[in-house]
Amino acid sequence: MLEQATNYVVELKQNAEELKRRKVELEGDNKVGSQDERLPVLTIRDMDSILEVNLITGLNNNLKLHEVLSVLKEEGVEVESASYSSVGNQTFYTIHGKVLYSRIGIETSRVHERLKRLIH
Question: Which residues contact 75 (CB under 8 A, 6 or more apart)?
Fold first, then answer.
């Protein structure tokens, strides 16, 4: 038991060091300009008949949410909820929708490409 406890403490110490290293790395990424270069970020999750769209943009992005919602509607998604919040210089959007024709499904790669063209 003593050996297991010692191994566990060593493992915790290694994890703490790794987290400290990642923190320093992430703090370096938060410097002016570096974060904006990675924006916008778009992710789409397809969970059977539910579609979740997550989008992160900079505050200077002229995103028109109604255009995003129109693309989803054209692709056969009924938007059930859409929300956003701004933190620092970023805006986070979350959209939940229901696939209208669940037997047919939805081509998420096409939705992703259309939205990507719209936000870039």
Answer: 106, 107, 110, 111, 114
List pLDDT tens digits, range 5-17: 998 898 889 888 8
**pTM score > 0.70 for this model?**
no
Domain ranges of the chain: 1-30, 38-119
What tokens appear for 48 in the block?
């059977």
CATH 3.30.70 fits 38-119, yes or no: yes
